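Input (protein-tyrosine-phosphatase):
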Amino acid sequence: MKSQTLDIKSITPRCESFRSSFSPFSDVEISLPPKICKTPEPWIMMKNRHRRLTLDEFCLSPNSPDVISYDESQRVCDTVLPSEQTLIGVRTIDLSTLKQVIKDHVSVEIIDCRYPYEYNAGHIKGALNLWNEDLLLNHFPIEKDVPQSPSILLFYCEFSGTRAPALARHFRRTDQHSCNPYLIYKEVYLIDKGFCEVFEHYNEICEGEYIEMNDERFVIKKKECSRIIAYIRKGRQVSSPRYSNITPLSLSAPSV
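Output:
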């Protein structure tokens, strides 16, 4: 005796039609609610305005946590220098403004965020080599009841595309999230296009020479600096014996 197989596919349409005939909503047309248009994210708004950003490598990623809201960035819009707002809450100044502010302002602190071997080879005159978060916050403390500083802080790295924006953003957010009802360091800026452009166009305000971060002579030192920064960002102290002998002094450029 042959066993009969049941064709499920042939029965399914009949079941569906049978079920729908008893449904009280069979003749009711169901419409989905209209989609709600959300406010465009800041990076989309900037893109739609056809405005070229100066920190493309750092803050143009749609999913980047570094992009902040306009409400937060507008808290520090009344600055003293002519500058351009970025998506990380720190404004940029061009090279002509840099030259003028060095000439006219006494209380200017220039922060070189490059690695020590780059800084030791050459840098902007008077710049401080504060290349990681610990060095930066030790030199410019952010604590409760510290009076507002009159200093103008100018950050730069090789191209001002990654390292300087990262440090400046961290510094700004630390200041914003402190217990003070004001910013201790209100005048914080990035030098647009970094040391590469400064050295090329305004060599008179620089000393030494310009070497690239990826210079083949410093591959090992570059890796050491990157590891130290990674440890600091994870909230660890650089106390491991493996890194205890790595200091800014030991990362100097070779004599030429």
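Confidence is low (pLDDT under 50) at residues 17-77, 237-256.
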